[in-house]
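lol ok so funny story. i was supposed to be doing the assay writeup but got distracted and ended up predicting the structure for this chain instead. priorities right. anyway since i did it might as well share w the group, maybe its usefull for someone
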Amino acid sequence: MQNRIPQSGQYDQLAGNIRIWAHELGFQAAGITDVDLSSAEAGLEAWLTRGFHGEMDYMAKHGVKRSRPADLVPGTVRVISLRMNYWPDEAREGFEVLGQGERAYISRYALGRDYHKVLRKRLALLADKIRGEVAEFDGRVFTDSAPVMEVALADKSGLGWRGKHTLLLTRDQGSWFFLGEIYLNLPLPVDAPVAAHCGSCDACMRICPTQAIIAPYRLDARRCISYLTIELKGPIPTEFRPLLGNRIYGCDDCQLACPWNRFAKMTVEADFAIRHHLDDVGLAELFAWDEAQFTERFAGSAIYRIGHEQWLRNIAVALGNAPASEQVRAALQSRMNHPSELVREHVQWALAQQPES
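and the output, tada:
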């Protein structure tokens, strides 16, 4: 059968098929929106003007392309927004690990395979299915890899609402999911946004260790532990180091505290299964990994991109915050002469936090 652009009434059928295909490809939900993000653009510009993006220069360098999809991908008239759950069923409960200072806490999205790879492949397959129906289809797929306002698009497409912690929330599945998008040139029917249901709750704001959520819906990334452990390449400011606790890659506190995550669904994706017991592993054990071990064990992982030096920097801080023990001091002393000045400085700080026996 020759491909053809659907007539106006047939776009409804195509949109329905897209949702079916999305579920078949492992997405839990799909929504469609237009490309008008003018209200979100004003908020983005204000956020950048305040410098809340810190050293994430990529947040500003693309200008309005982030908030104007058709500027980023000419011809775009619709965006398909999709979400996929990631919390692995077997992962140890987050607050339990956070309560044991000698253990390492790693953000639950990073326990398995790199989500960029997983989602990009599924999004490409979905785009191929659309192209199989409509030869004139043109578009691009994204997942946290380009100047795209993912949460604003997902909010506008009806996938959920933007919570006070700035993440997307849903009543039936909480927030433990990844987002991905397809920018396309077909005028599909759009979905209506859903109402917000945070109400007067401020649990996410109260629990943030560094008080990075400075107001509802406003995050100062420079204070955020995810930024400090992942995006920041230099020294971690000393005033934040004690507040990191045992968090060595990312932070989930605002999600762990959110009441809506009582309804979160576990992932069914084998790719997001836990690797190397990262949901419950000792800091000293991870600190002992050399660069070859780091490279081998984090191949295909989101953690790989921070590199071994930054990995050691983060763990050194966590060891400084850990309960005092000979094991902790021995681990830190093993890196006192590390070639990296960044690592050495954080090790020295950590040792100063550990009383000698």
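The first strand starts at residue 29 and ends at 33. The CA atoms of residues 209 and 243 lie 6 Å apart.
back to the writeup now i swear
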